[in-house]
Design brief:
Helix content is 42%, strand content 14%. The chain has 16 helices and 16 strands. The chain has a five-stranded parallel β-sheet, with helices on both faces. Strands 6-7-8-9 form a four-stranded antiparallel β-sheet. Strand 3, helix 1 and strand 4 form a beta-alpha-beta unit. The longest helix has 24 residues. The relative contact order is 0.12. The chain binds adenosine monophosphate and zinc ion. Zinc ion (ZN) binds next to loops. The site of zinc ion has 3 residues, from loops.
Length: 491
């Protein structure tokens, strides 16, 4: 398949879309800032990984050999990005009266469950911060003499020692600095701790010996070290949510610059990654989504309410990753209907193919009838991951008439390799999740719906309404207006 449209990606560092030119020909090496595993991820967090997954899938689609690394932060991320507050992990462990290690394991598994449910591909490597502490200490030692100073509370990075500190950040410096709390003895407001000493007389659950005394690494140090250790500087692309553009990533870049200069790496290596990409936020009507506000929007909550997780993935794909996306239950419902339409098309095709292969590679190569659509799809995803446009092309292919069904299925599956909606394996029945709070079985719902259909056919509307009310009382809402015959959902 021809996937030769030029790939351009928006680089937050240069603030423009740039042609992708890999450091190593034919390869793409990507690092994504992963979750801090002190709590369940909310669906906004998961938007960041759907974005990183689409990026990785696009690079694979374009023929690059992809190495994707996502980290798991299990130490060092403070309650305030800007160097103050408690360690998020320590605080949760204290609140739940559990060891940090147990907390980390529990929430890492919960995160991975969401990753699987959203059909996010496994990266080449998950790096866990606590596995890299010796390398973090070595990295810090390497830059300490020229770029750091020691205070009672830790080893601090002096941001004036690197060129053009903070060029990635968008927030006005004043506002940025306003957020950074002062620590006695800090030379500049933006200086940050790369090693945090355990205060005298205290013992932390997670602490390591270092040349600066017992303590723990700073969060920014972790990502510099893990990305450099696994991918090597410079690598191609570093991703994260836009909040990281303001403090976390500028600090990573500063450390990478210091490390690369100290180690005689050339200019191109200075920022660590050539391209820095950031997804915008998923927001609620009331503002930015957060783990502490109101109803905690976990993927599991969506599932409990009867929405298939891939409907959420589709909702993400409907917006460009650099646009803010507002979450609403109506929007999620519409995305579910859209997904259902695609699956109906796939199921109709499958019914026309004598033996449907279990794996995409066994499908025929889509021929000339599809060339125009494939080219437009390629152009869309190559244009800084324009997934809204790509989805439309996918739907156009699904609607094509008078084409060979096996080839059409092959075309849909080839495009879905980028969008990741799992169209080949998912069935329409999979989409109909029983809401957790529904107090009837699926069979009972079906039986009542069948009786209601009969009543309506016989124009016995009183009985039809009574049956609808009966279901409503059990938490099931009947959706008559749905053109696709979506029979019920949680009321
Ligand atoms: P954290 O676990 O807090 O480090 O966040 C994990 C990822 O989710 C980071 O890349 C954040 O930038 C990103 N993120 C946090 N909140 C949102 C949101 N509401 N929408 C999209 N991405 C988010
Ligand atoms: Zn990071």
């Amino acid at each position: 398949m021809d996937t030769s449209a030029p790939l351009t990606l928006f680089n937050s560092l240069t603030r423009r879309a740039e042609p992708f030119q890999p450091v190593r020909p034919g390869e793409a090496r990507v690092y994504s800032c992963g979750p801090t595993v002190y709590n369940y991820p909310h669906i906004g967090n998961m938007r960041a990984y759907v974005f990183a997954d689409v990026l990785g899938r696009t690079l694979s689609f374009k023929g690059y050999k992809l190495t994707h690394v996502i980290n798991i932060t299990d130490v060092g991320h403070l309650t305030d990005d800007a160097d103050q507050g408690e360690d998020k992990m320590e605080r949760m462990a204290a609140a739940q009266k559990q060891s940090i290690w147990d907390i980390a394991e529990h929430y890492k598994q919960a995160y991975w469950a969401d990753v699987r449910a959203l059909n996010i591909r496994q990266p080449a490597e998950w790096t866990v911060a606590t596995d890299y502490v010796p390398q973090m200490i070595a990295f810090a030692e390497g830059i300490a003499a020229q770029h750091c100073y020691e205070l009672e509370s830790g080893l601090y990075f002096d941001v004036s020692t690197v060129a053009d500190y903070g060029r990635l950040a968008r927030a006005a410096t004043e506002e940025g600095e306003g957020r950074i709390e002062q620590v006695e003895g800090k030379r500049h407001a933006a200086d940050f701790a790369i090693w945090r000493k355990t205060p005298p007389g205290e013992t932390r659950q997670m602490e390591w010996d270092s040349p600066w005394g017992k303590g723990a690494p700073g969060w920014h140090l972790e990502c510099s070290v893990m990305s450099g250790a696994v991918l090597g500087f410079p690598f191609d692309i570093h991703t994260g949510g836009i909040d990281h553009r303001e403090i976390h990533h500028p600090n990573e870049i500063a450390q990478n610059q210091a490390h690369c200069c100290t180690n005689g790496l050339d200019d191109a290596a200075n920022s660590g990654a050539k391209i820095w990409m950031h997804n915008n936020f998923l927001v609620e009507r009331s503002g930015k989504m957060s783990k502490s506000s109101g109803e905690f929007l976990r993927l599991q909550l969506l599932i409990d309410k009867g929405y298939h997780p891939l409907a959420y993935r589709l909702l993400c794909l409907q917006a460009h990753y650099r646009s803010e996306l507002e979450f609403s239950w109506e929007g999620l419902g519409a995305a579910l209907t859209r997904l259902k339409r695609l699956l109906i098309a796939v199921e109709q095709l499958k019914a026309r193919i004598p033996s449907v292969p279990a794996a995409a590679v066994l499908l025929p190569v889509p021929g000339r009838n599809f060339a125009n659509h494939l080219a437009r799809f390629d152009a869309a995803v190559s244009d800084d991951l324009n997934t809204p446009q790509a989805l439309t092309v996918l739907e156009e292919v699904a609607a094509l008439k008078k084409v060979d069904p096996a080839e059409k299925l092959a075309a849909l599956v080839a495009l879905d390799a980028v969008l990741g909606l799992d169209l080949l394996n998912l069935t329409r029945a999979d989409l109909r999740l029983r809401p957790k709070s529904a107090i009837v079985t699926e069979a009972e719902i079906e039986a009542t719906l069948a009786a209601r259909k009969d009543a309506r056919a016989a124009k016995d509307f009183a009985r039809s309404d009574a049956l609808r009310d009966e279901l409503a009382a059990k938490g099931v809402e009947v959706m008559d207006g749905d053109p696709l015959g979506w029979d019920w959902k949680l009321g």
